[in-house]
Design goal:
single chain; 5-stranded antiparallel sheet; Jelly Rolls; elongated; 104 residues; mainly beta; 4-stranded antiparallel sheet
């Protein structure tokens, strides 16, 4: 969904199969402490102007060692996307995988 991102960004829409979605978010800094927040959004349409609904939030406390967290969600949204809302720390980057895949 998001690959090695270091500033706020939103992924492309990701299709959900079988009403089950997992997200794994991991990241680190190059020096010292940091933090990141990733929100997952759901929708039944990718048409512009149709609002996305918040599904879950993953908060990470970053350090120089890779840290990970995630969620498994059962729902009937047809699409999800990830949004890196905030990130801090020297050289901080995160990656978010949806069902084990990158989207953008």
């Amino acid at each position: 969904m998001l690959n090695n991102v270091s500033s706020p960004a939103t992924s492309d829409a990701f299709p959900v199969e079988n009403n089950l979605f997992s997200v794994q978010v991991f990241g680190r800094t190059t020096s010292g402490a940091g933090a990141a927040q990733v929100k997952i959004w759901g929708s039944n349409s990718t048409t512009a102007g149709i609002p996305w609904i918040p599904v879950c939030t993953v908060d990470l406390t970053l350090g120089t060692t890779m840290i990970a967290d995630g969620a498994v969600v059962e729902f009937s949204w047809k699409f999800v996307r990830a949004e890196l809302v905030s990130i801090s720390g020297t050289g901080a980057t995160i990656t978010a995988l949806g069902n084990g895949k990158y989207v953008s």
